[in-house]
Amino acid sequence: MNLKKRDIDGCYECNSELYPKYKKKNKIFPTYCLKCKKINRSVVKNCPICKSSKYEMWGEPVRNFYSVKCKSCQIVYIKNPLSSFAQNLFYKNYHTTVHQKEKKKNKQRSKMYKLELNFIKKGINNYERIKNVLDVGCGGGYLLDLLKIDGKKTFGTEIGIDSFNVARKKHKMYFGNFDHKLVIKKQFDLIIFRGVIEHVEDPIGYIKKAQKLLKKNGHIFITATPNLNCIAAKLFKERWSLHRPESHILHLSEEHVDEIFKTKSFIKVASKSFYLDTPYENFERDLVSILNEIKRKKKKIKSKNISPAFFESMMSVIYKKIK
Ligand SMILES: [Zn+2]
Ligand SMILES: [Zn+2]
What we know:
This protein is α/β, with parallel strands linked by helices. It has a domain at 101-321: Rossmann fold (3-Layer(aba) Sandwich). The protein contains nine helices and 13 strands. The protein has helices at 84-91, 94-100, 103-123, 142-149, 161-167, 203-213, 231-236, 254-262, 283-298, and strands at residues 18-19, 32-33, 55-57, 67-70, 76-78, 132-136, 153-158, 172-175, 188-194, 214-226, 250-251, 266-272, 314-321. It has a seven-stranded mixed β-sheet, sandwiched between helices. The protein has a four-stranded antiparallel β-sheet with strand order 3-4-5-11, with no helix packed on it. It has a two-stranded antiparallel sheet with strand order 1-2. Helix 3 (103-123) crosses helix 4. The N and C termini lie far apart (47 Å). It binds zinc ion (2 copies).
């Protein structure tokens, strides 16, 4: 599949229109290709965080993906995310076709790695004493590269075979989803989830697993994760630049993440929202684009614009295990 074909609203096999499969139970959410019988989407029945079944619509559907807001805990999630069949096609060669070919984005990302590493160094006292670091969903292992330079023992997990093969040349790697099936017989001082928890069906399961693999007084670093509680999300909803329903299947606010960690005996030790001085920021242009969107909204003019990068749109948070 090439880059242009990734963003399709039809069937991943034949591009035909999708229909709800179980007409009685599922009246709205398209999942099924009548032509080639492939199930392209699954339907998520309960909130991935609080398990409530009550929801309301959030924004407009994008490429036939319907977003809903949980009425109980207020997170936003995709009601009909890609099925594993379609996900495989979507992520096939994700690393080479999307990540590596976009040179500009790579440059931006490598600047972010440096900023994030500085944040870790300031946020964790005794950074020097950290030995083992695990980066869950580490991609090509580029953030780990910097930690290795600092003398850390670096470990990563990855599900994309191309990324895995790049990272394994430099770091000790585990292949697969970060669930109970993935056997890791190590204990870590620091576990990183960079742009990960918004991609997974069971973020609480991931955090539980990390908790078990973490030494006492170890840290978890959540970063490059969209923050639902931000101006761009409130104003643009489905046109928020971080709303990418193929891959971002849920949106949490920092408060939601805090809540999860609080129940697991962690304390928050540092938090930052990277925007100013990041490669994504152009605050004069971004402010104008925010103001224009507010004006259009007041005049009830329909907008197709995508949100700019903006304050509070992303979260970077460090939690410390206290028990
Ligand atoms: Zn089809
Ligand atoms: Zn919920």
